[in-house]
């Protein structure tokens, strides 16, 4: 699904030099590469403050902790995403309220959002899934109307940009009060291990977040907050500094691979290709098909027989997961998410995908639907 080894070989000398510098310095925790990476990523995205942390899940948790919410406060989010989004809400004693997704973009459907807002709602947590932004303008309008916080989960869309109706453009993760991301190795900007970050334009949030991810400490050995231990290793920061220089080219490579898929799969009636939202660029963390007619699993098996990996992101929406049954949702409550769980299939998508590989994959998909 992701060819990290070939990507590494392209930048191997840069990576080795960066790692050697850290090893020679022995500044393994909070070394200078961490703050340098934060500053460089902030400049790259046009975001005022970047606070690095241990992983994307911790980034979400720290952002929620910064809001100083009370047990039982409600956070509206999506059921069609990775578990971290709902997991951190529950870990903090808050209540997830799940709103179904748009069937075309797979992101939180803003038309359903207002009906989910109650007196206990404190924040909206949209997820920018598969590489493009949720429709943020109406989400932000509702947040202002009801006095709610907005935290963006931009783990799959770092580098994507949202277009407002007035033509203004802003990067994913910079639109709400805070944004979060992950540097898991398979992400578009991936480390050689775990890593994450929180974004904000608010200096007071930034100060609070820096303390929260460092045991609640602002001054050494003086603890103003109850925090966590979630620091980005200096080695990972040094690696990310190198890869950040290549991030725009990585995005272009993924977009070119997506265009090859689009061309090779055009005209197949049994599948729906990924929609390019009119209000967001798409950086293709995943290239995800919708396969109609109950043929998704058959297609997956067919591809596997021909040595082609594929993945289902995500087979069971969060409201139907065993760990979250006590939220009270039942099958049928969020029908779009449930339908997508039975029909989506993601194809290999990475910076090293060649035209020949893409053509081979498309040919095998065509052969499945139109056998000779």
Features:
alpha/beta, three-stranded antiparallel sheet, seven-stranded mixed sheet, 372 residues, 15% strand, globular
Identify the strand order in the major beta sheet. Answer: 1-9-8-5-4-2-3
Total number of helical segments?
12
Could you give the count of β-strands? 14
Can you tell me the residue ranges where pLDDT is under 50 for at least 5 consecutive residues?
none
Q: Please state the overall shape, judged from the principal axes of the Cα atoms.
A: globular
Percent of residues in helices comes to 25-40%
- Main sheet overview: 7 strands, mixed
User: What does the radius of gyration come to?
Assistant: 21 Å
Describe, in plain words, how this protein is organized in 3D.
By secondary structure, the protein is an alpha/beta fold. Helix content is 38%, strand content 15%. The strands form 4 sheets. Strands 1-9-8-5-4-2-3 form a 7-stranded mixed beta sheet, with helices on both faces. Strands 12-13-14 form a 3-stranded antiparallel beta sheet. It is globular and about 70 Å long. The model has no long low-confidence stretch (mean pLDDT 97).
């Amino acid at each position: 699904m992701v060819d990290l080894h070939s990507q590494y070989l392209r930048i191997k000398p840069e990576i080795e030099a960066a790692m050697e510098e850290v090893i020679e310095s022995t500044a393994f925790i909070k070394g200078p590469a961490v703050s340098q990476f934060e500053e460089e990523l902030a400049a790259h995205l046009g975001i005022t403050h970047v606070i690095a942390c241990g992983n994307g899940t911790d980034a979400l948790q720290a952002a929620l902790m910064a809001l100083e919410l009370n047990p039982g406060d409600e956070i509206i989010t999506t059921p069609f995403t990775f578990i971290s989004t709902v997991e951190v809400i529950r870990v903090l004693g808050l209540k997830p309220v799940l709103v179904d997704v748009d069937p075309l973009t797979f992101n939180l459907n803003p038309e359903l959002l207002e009906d989910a807002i109650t007196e206990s709602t404190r924040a909206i947590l949209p997820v920018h899934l598969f590489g493009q932004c949720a429709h943020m303008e109406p989400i932000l309008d509702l947040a202002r109307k009801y006095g709610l916080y907005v935290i963006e989960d931009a783990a799959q869309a770092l580098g994507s940009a949202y277009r407002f109706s007035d033509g203004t453009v802003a990067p994913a993760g910079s639109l709400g009060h805070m944004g979060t991301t992950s540097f898991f190795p398979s992400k578009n900007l991936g480390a050689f291990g775990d890593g994450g970050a929180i974004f904000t334009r608010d200096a007071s949030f930034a100060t609070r977040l820096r303390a929260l991810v460092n045991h609640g400490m602002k001054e050494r050995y003086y603890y103003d907050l109850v925090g966590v231990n979630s620091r980005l290793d200096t080695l990972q920061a040094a690696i990310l500094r190198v890869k950040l220089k290549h991030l725009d080219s990585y995005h272009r490579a993924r977009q070119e691979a997506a265009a090859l898929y689009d061309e090779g799969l055009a005209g197949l009636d049994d599948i729906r290709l990924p929609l390019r939202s009119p209000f967001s660029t798409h950086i293709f963390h995943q290239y995800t098909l919708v396969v109609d007619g109950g043929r998704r699993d058959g297609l997956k098996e067919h591809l596997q027989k021909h040595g082609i990996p594929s993945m289902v992101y995500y087979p069971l929406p969060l409201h139907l997961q065993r760990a979250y049954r006590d939220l009270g949702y039942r099958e049928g409550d969020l029908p779009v998410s449930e339908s997508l769980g039975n029909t989506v299939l993601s194809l290999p998508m990475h910076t090293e995908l060649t035209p020949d590989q893409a053509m081979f994959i498309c040919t095998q998909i065509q052969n499945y639907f139109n056998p000779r």
